[in-house]
From TrEMBL:
GO MF annotations in UniProt: sequence-specific DNA binding
Source species taxonomy: Eukaryota, Metazoa, Chordata, Craniata, Vertebrata
UniProt-recorded name of the protein: PiggyBac transposable element-derived protein 3-like
PiggyBac transposable element-derived protein domain location: 5-119
Length: 121
């Protein structure tokens, strides 16, 4: 059985003074919300493409927090993730996919062709 619940929320109230430059604005919001989690329990979090970035996924992996989120293909550095151009994947049959693991980021990025190309990390 899996228990899923809201652990913490923070309504947006304008610009904040605290931002972690290495994970960006969206990543700073996620890291701030996860600060309250107990350190001795494993968690899995999910978020959408506004928040997802490779530096955030790496930072969460270092804290032993599992994370999954959709990625914008323009946020994937090609030197770390030699991913295919979405235009090429779109020409493949529906259900086709590619994936790449980065030992540096400790993240797997998968792209697959559905109705559109979906990238997830």
């Amino acid at each position: 059985m899996t228990l899923e619940y809201l652990g913490q929320c923070h309504p947006y109230a304008g610009k904040s003074a605290t931002m972690m430059s290495d994970v960006g604005l969206g990543g700073s919001v996620v890291m701030g919300l996860l600060d309250c989690l107990p350190k001795d329990v494993r968690f899995q979090v999910t978020f959408d493409n506004y928040f997802t970035s490779l530096p955030l996924l790496k930072a969460l992996a270092e804290k032993r927090i599992g994370a999954t989120g959709t990625l914008r293909s323009n946020r994937l550095p090609h030197e770390d993730y030699p991913h295919e151009d979405p235009r090429i994947i779109k020409k493949k049959p529906r259900g086709s996919y590619t994936y790449h693991y980065s030992p540096y980021h400790k993240v797997v990025v998968t792209q697959w062709n559905d109705n559109n190309v979906v990238t997830i990390g």
